[in-house]
Amino acid sequence: MSGKSETAKEPRPPFKLWGPAVGLGWLIPGGGHFLLKRYGRGGLLMFAVTGMYLLGLLARGALFTPQVADLFTTVIHCGGFFGNLASGALYLLTVWLGYDQPDMPGLAHDYGTKFLVTAGLLNVLAMVDAYELAVGRKS
Amino acid sequence: MPKVMLSHFEAALVFALFSSIVLGIVTKRTDRERLTYGLYCFAGFLAFLFGLGWLMYLGHG
User: Fold this and answer.
1) Backbone φ, ψ for residue A6 (5° rounding)
2) Probe site for chain A from B5, B10, B20, B26 (most A CB atoms < 10 A)
């Protein structure tokens, strides 16, 4: 026995096949699905991710900035920043338009912060789905 | 910009709704499976919400 795996590794699909769908899906939630002509699913994803993000803004949630300190702080702030950034144009517009809510205690603020991060994480799931659609692993 | 004040229950309900929509869409392959799984996730969120609520209420004494 050689110990090598007998199953051949599946070749990576070319970037031009999935790049535009994933990129547009990041920038506009559901956009990748629209590009791939899955209008119903794209619309629902856009509704869910944008709704979650807007509710986070209306509840005055805080946006994360990456900070490197002890492990806990680094994970929370860098992870939170990644979650915010994954919302694409929603996050970029929010920052460019000057939204600057400090992190403060309170029920509404706390939920708002979580809603803002979760919207980005849901958009990551939507981007993965767009990738699978683009490379033909899903229909 | 108006400010929204959600109660714990309202926030959890909205969170469950939006999350269930996305989970239903991205995990299944047919529309029927997506609808079923979305509803299943939503029901699961609600069951967990009420279960945890009662657990905290009873545990608090």
Assistant:
1) -85, -20
2) B26
Interchain CB distance below 8 Å, B19 and A115: no
Q: How many Å lie between the alpha carbon of A67 and the closest alpha carbon of chain B?
A: 27
Residue A11 has what DSSP assignment? P
Q: Which of B48, B17, B39 has its CA nearest to residue A55? A: B17
Question: Which amino acid does the sequence have at A79?
Answer: G
**Residue A33 to residue A21: CA distance in whole angstroms:** 7
Given a cut of 70, is residue A51 above it in pLDDT? yes
Q: What DSSP string runs through A30-63?
A: THHHHHTT-HHHHHHHHHHHHHHHHHHHHTTPPP
Single-letter residue type at A43: G
- Summarised one tens digit per residue, pLDDT across range A72-88 is 999 999 999 999 999 99
